[in-house]
Hints:
single chain; alpha/beta; 4-stranded mixed beta sheet; 3-stranded mixed beta sheet
Amino acid sequence: MSPLDRSETFRGRGAGISPASRFAKTQREDFDDGWDIQEEETSLRTQIFPDQSRSIFSKNESPDIPFSVSINAYRGCEHGCIYCFARPTHEYFDLSAGIDFESKIFAKFDAARLLEKEFRKPKYIPQTIALSGVTDIYQPVERRLQITRSLLRVFAAYRHPVALVYKSGGIIRVKDLL
Protein backbone atom coordinates (compact mmCIF):
# COMPACT_ATOMS: atom_id res chain seq x y z
CA MET A 1 0.00 0.00 0.00
CA SER A 2 1.39 3.39 -0.93
CA PRO A 3 1.41 6.25 1.61
CA LEU A 4 -1.31 7.94 -0.43
CA ASP A 5 -3.71 4.99 -0.24
CA ARG A 6 -5.45 5.64 3.07
CA SER A 7 -8.72 3.90 2.18
CA GLU A 8 -7.41 0.59 3.52
CA THR A 9 -5.94 2.23 6.63
CA PHE A 10 -9.26 3.45 8.03
CA ARG A 11 -11.49 0.43 7.61
CA GLY A 12 -15.10 1.04 8.42
CA ARG A 13 -14.81 4.79 7.88
CA GLY A 14 -16.35 6.75 5.01
CA ALA A 15 -13.52 9.20 4.44
CA GLY A 16 -10.18 7.90 3.32
CA ILE A 17 -8.40 11.15 4.03
CA SER A 18 -8.00 13.65 6.82
CA PRO A 19 -7.31 17.03 5.20
CA ALA A 20 -6.28 20.00 7.32
CA SER A 21 -9.00 22.39 8.42
CA ARG A 22 -9.40 25.42 6.18
CA PHE A 23 -8.71 27.53 9.28
CA ALA A 24 -5.41 25.79 10.11
CA LYS A 25 -2.28 27.94 9.98
CA THR A 26 -0.18 25.08 8.58
CA GLN A 27 -1.07 22.24 6.28
CA ARG A 28 0.66 18.93 5.61
CA GLU A 29 0.28 16.79 2.55
CA ASP A 30 1.26 13.16 1.97
CA PHE A 31 3.12 12.43 -1.21
CA ASP A 32 4.69 9.37 -2.74
CA ASP A 33 8.46 9.74 -2.38
CA GLY A 34 9.12 6.45 -4.12
CA TRP A 35 10.29 4.51 -1.06
CA ASP A 36 7.30 2.12 -1.05
CA ILE A 37 7.75 1.23 2.63
CA GLN A 38 5.06 -1.11 3.92
CA GLU A 39 3.07 0.81 6.54
CA GLU A 40 1.40 -0.86 9.47
CA GLU A 41 -2.35 -1.13 9.21
CA THR A 42 -4.07 0.67 12.03
CA SER A 43 -7.62 0.58 13.23
CA LEU A 44 -8.95 3.99 14.08
CA ARG A 45 -10.86 4.12 17.34
CA THR A 46 -13.56 6.66 17.98
CA GLN A 47 -12.72 9.29 20.59
CA ILE A 48 -15.48 11.00 22.59
CA PHE A 49 -15.07 14.56 23.85
CA PRO A 50 -17.46 16.53 26.06
CA ASP A 51 -19.40 19.25 24.25
CA GLN A 52 -19.37 22.21 26.61
CA SER A 53 -22.31 24.07 25.03
CA ARG A 54 -24.27 26.03 27.59
CA SER A 55 -27.44 26.03 25.51
CA ILE A 56 -29.25 22.94 24.33
CA PHE A 57 -31.17 24.49 21.42
CA SER A 58 -29.95 25.19 17.90
CA LYS A 59 -32.09 27.76 16.09
CA ASN A 60 -32.93 27.51 12.41
CA GLU A 61 -34.47 30.19 10.21
CA SER A 62 -34.27 28.38 6.87
CA PRO A 63 -37.64 28.45 5.08
CA ASP A 64 -37.07 25.01 3.52
CA ILE A 65 -36.59 23.14 6.81
CA PRO A 66 -39.81 22.23 8.66
CA PHE A 67 -38.54 22.98 12.18
CA SER A 68 -37.03 26.07 13.78
CA VAL A 69 -35.48 24.51 16.89
CA SER A 70 -33.36 21.38 17.15
CA ILE A 71 -31.13 19.59 19.60
CA ASN A 72 -27.87 18.07 18.46
CA ALA A 73 -26.67 15.63 21.09
CA TYR A 74 -23.57 14.86 19.01
CA ARG A 75 -21.17 16.72 16.74
CA GLY A 76 -19.51 14.38 14.32
CA CYS A 77 -20.87 11.04 13.25
CA GLU A 78 -19.44 7.54 13.15
CA HIS A 79 -21.58 6.57 10.15
CA GLY A 80 -19.17 8.52 7.97
CA CYS A 81 -21.54 9.25 5.10
CA ILE A 82 -19.25 10.95 2.64
CA TYR A 83 -22.09 13.21 1.42
CA CYS A 84 -22.93 14.58 4.91
CA PHE A 85 -23.44 18.35 4.89
CA ALA A 86 -22.35 18.60 8.55
CA ARG A 87 -18.73 17.57 7.92
CA PRO A 88 -17.34 21.14 7.61
CA THR A 89 -18.53 21.98 11.14
CA HIS A 90 -15.54 20.08 12.54
CA GLU A 91 -13.22 22.59 10.90
CA TYR A 92 -14.35 25.20 13.45
CA PHE A 93 -12.56 23.04 16.04
CA ASP A 94 -9.43 22.91 13.84
CA LEU A 95 -10.27 19.31 13.00
CA SER A 96 -10.66 17.58 9.67
CA ALA A 97 -13.98 17.27 7.86
CA GLY A 98 -12.71 13.83 6.83
CA ILE A 99 -11.58 11.20 9.32
CA ASP A 100 -11.82 13.53 12.34
CA PHE A 101 -15.55 14.08 11.70
CA GLU A 102 -16.06 10.31 11.88
CA SER A 103 -13.70 9.48 14.72
CA LYS A 104 -13.71 12.53 17.05
CA ILE A 105 -17.23 12.88 18.37
CA PHE A 106 -18.36 15.66 20.68
CA ALA A 107 -21.18 14.60 23.01
CA LYS A 108 -23.51 16.75 25.12
CA PHE A 109 -23.42 14.62 28.24
CA ASP A 110 -25.68 17.00 30.16
CA ALA A 111 -28.23 17.40 27.35
CA ALA A 112 -31.20 16.08 29.36
CA ARG A 113 -30.45 18.44 32.26
CA LEU A 114 -30.16 21.42 29.88
CA LEU A 115 -33.43 20.48 28.17
CA GLU A 116 -35.35 20.22 31.42
CA LYS A 117 -33.89 23.57 32.50
CA GLU A 118 -35.32 25.14 29.30
CA PHE A 119 -38.74 23.51 29.81
CA ARG A 120 -38.93 24.92 33.35
CA LYS A 121 -38.37 28.54 32.28
CA PRO A 122 -41.56 30.57 32.85
CA LYS A 123 -41.39 32.17 29.39
CA TYR A 124 -40.80 28.93 27.51
CA ILE A 125 -43.33 28.42 24.68
CA PRO A 126 -43.68 24.79 23.56
CA GLN A 127 -43.10 23.96 19.91
CA THR A 128 -41.98 20.82 18.11
CA ILE A 129 -38.26 20.29 18.61
CA ALA A 130 -36.27 18.15 16.21
CA LEU A 131 -33.68 15.80 17.65
CA SER A 132 -30.65 16.00 15.40
CA GLY A 133 -30.75 17.55 11.98
CA VAL A 134 -26.96 17.52 11.87
CA THR A 135 -25.83 13.97 12.71
CA ASP A 136 -27.60 10.69 13.38
CA ILE A 137 -29.04 10.52 16.90
CA TYR A 138 -28.61 6.73 16.77
CA GLN A 139 -25.03 6.52 15.58
CA PRO A 140 -23.07 3.63 17.15
CA VAL A 141 -21.82 5.62 20.16
CA GLU A 142 -25.44 6.19 21.28
CA ARG A 143 -25.66 2.52 22.33
CA ARG A 144 -23.19 3.27 25.08
CA LEU A 145 -23.87 6.94 25.94
CA GLN A 146 -27.69 6.92 25.59
CA ILE A 147 -27.93 10.71 25.38
CA THR A 148 -30.83 10.54 22.91
CA ARG A 149 -32.65 8.15 25.23
CA SER A 150 -32.21 10.54 28.17
CA LEU A 151 -33.59 13.40 26.06
CA LEU A 152 -36.62 11.34 25.06
CA ARG A 153 -37.31 10.63 28.73
CA VAL A 154 -37.52 14.39 29.36
CA PHE A 155 -39.78 14.89 26.34
CA ALA A 156 -42.05 12.08 27.59
CA ALA A 157 -42.16 13.45 31.15
CA TYR A 158 -43.29 16.87 29.86
CA ARG A 159 -45.49 15.39 27.09
CA HIS A 160 -43.66 17.72 24.73
CA PRO A 161 -43.79 17.34 20.92
CA VAL A 162 -40.58 16.03 19.35
CA ALA A 163 -39.47 15.08 15.83
CA LEU A 164 -36.68 12.58 15.21
CA VAL A 165 -34.21 12.80 12.34
CA TYR A 166 -32.12 9.65 12.03
CA LYS A 167 -30.49 7.29 9.55
CA SER A 168 -29.97 4.00 11.32
CA GLY A 169 -32.37 1.47 12.82
CA GLY A 170 -31.35 2.38 16.37
CA ILE A 171 -34.75 3.91 16.98
CA ILE A 172 -35.98 0.42 17.82
CA ARG A 173 -34.05 0.67 21.10
CA VAL A 174 -36.33 3.49 22.31
CA LYS A 175 -39.72 2.28 21.14
CA ASP A 176 -40.74 2.00 24.81
CA LEU A 177 -40.41 5.80 25.09
CA LEU A 178 -42.23 6.58 21.87
